[in-house]
Amino acid sequence: MSYQLDKFQYGLEKLEINLSEEKLNKFLIFYEMLIERNKVMNLTSITEFEEVVEKHFLDSLSIVRMVELNHEKKILDLGTGAGFPGIPIKIAFPELKLVLMDSLNKRVLFLKDVISELGLSHIVAVHGRAEEMARKPEYREQFDLCVSRAVANLSSLSEYCIPFVKKSGLFISYKSGEIDNEVHMAKKAIQLLGGEIQQVEKFVLTGTDISRSFVKIKKKHQTPKTYPRKAGTPSKMPIQ
């Protein structure tokens, strides 16, 4: 199948990302796998190629606005779903070490197939809930960077993500454009969890009129052992 790649190439140019033909081809294979598996399980409501390019691929890669990815880093993509932002980041920057984590095993099995099909190395897909996985020594405070496109509010998301980040590491949350109130409401939680908001970057997704934001949080101190609280609590009762 042939695809119209103009929008993708334009978006990559704007982000100053150069993809070889091999890497571009991996994006196309990933797209085809996503659409094929989406017929039997709910991975994404966005299925048109150009829309996937804009709202999944370029959105995932927009993180280069916030952090340098051209050297080795250990990254966790928490609540990765169908592999966003983790798989696009890994394809574009293969030297990174990635863990994709999701609470739904069916999605994790799909991601394992993608990793195998694309021949990606130093990347694993793991099934588990953040509240439990963040208590395991092999994951707690082990990552240079945690990223998440999950839709939870920033206070809850911080409780899920910050415990995985090592001291001086970063948690970067992908958010919609309207973020000011959410950031304000999450400040106490972020501080309590050992983090500090460094930057809120608002931008318009290349080639669209979609407003997006990144919230960049630096880990200043160890997260107290009491966090994250037991399964379901961070979402039901966010730290106020």
What do you see in this structure?
It is a single chain. The chain is α/β, with parallel strands linked by helices. The protein has one domain (6-236): Vaccinia Virus protein VP39 (Rossmann fold). It is built from 9 helices and 7 strands, in the order αααβαβαβαβαβαββα. A 7-stranded mixed sheet has the order 3-2-1-4-5-7-6, sandwiched between helices. Strand 1 (74-78), helix 4 and strand 2 (97-102) form a beta-alpha-beta unit. Helix 3 (49-61) crosses helix 4. The mean pLDDT is 96.
Question: β content, as a range?
Answer: 15-25%
Cα distance spanning the termini: 50 Å
Main beta sheet: strand number and arrangement? 7 strands, mixed
Mean pLDDT: 96
Number of helices: 9
Number of domains: 1
What share of the residues lie within helices?
Answer: 25-40%
CATH topology: Rossmann fold
**What sort of overall outline do the alpha carbons produce when their principal axes are compared?**
globular
**Corresponding CATH superfamily:** Vaccinia Virus protein VP39
Poorly predicted runs: none
* Level-2 CATH architecture: 3-Layer(aba) Sandwich
- CATH class wording: Alpha Beta
Determine the structural class based on helices, strands and strand pairing. Answer: alpha/beta
- Along the chain, the helix and strand elements come as HHHEHEHEHEHEHEEH
Main sheet: which strands, in order across?
3-2-1-4-5-7-6
Number of strands: 7
